User: Fold this.
Amino acid sequence: MEGVRAHLIEMYGGSIEIHCCQSLASATALLEKERFDLAIIDMSIHSHDPEAGAGSPFPLSSGGLDVLFEINYSESQAHCIILTQYPDIEIESLPIPIELAKEEILEKFDIEVAGCVRYLENDSSWKVEINRILSGL
Assistant:
């Protein structure tokens, strides 16, 4: 999250406002209150934020799709970019290669995403891909 945040600040400086959510629960709550122009969605978002006595959060392999559904349900005009560290995205229990995921999401759920990007910590190609997608919006 910090790498993506730093890249966006480097690109846009103070001209953007960034909200970060670490869980499906906090993302859903924020989407109920705010409208956004862009959402960058990690496909493996956690179930809930860590809190004392709440139990350990666990990663949801399709949690990012749930966020995408929430955005679509809210009739938001937000452009969505899917980000994942994995080469595949799980869609209806099937691994879909990242390069095919955009079309698969449109075909299966009638939801258009701006792009799907694989994030690798020590490889800056994700930045180039994010820039390319953003310049096309």
About this structure: The CA atoms of residues 82 and 116 lie 5 Å apart. The first helix runs from residue 2 to 12. The beta strands are 38-42, 79-84, 88-91, 94-97, 115-118. Helices lie at 2-12, 24-33, 63-73, 98-109, 125-135.
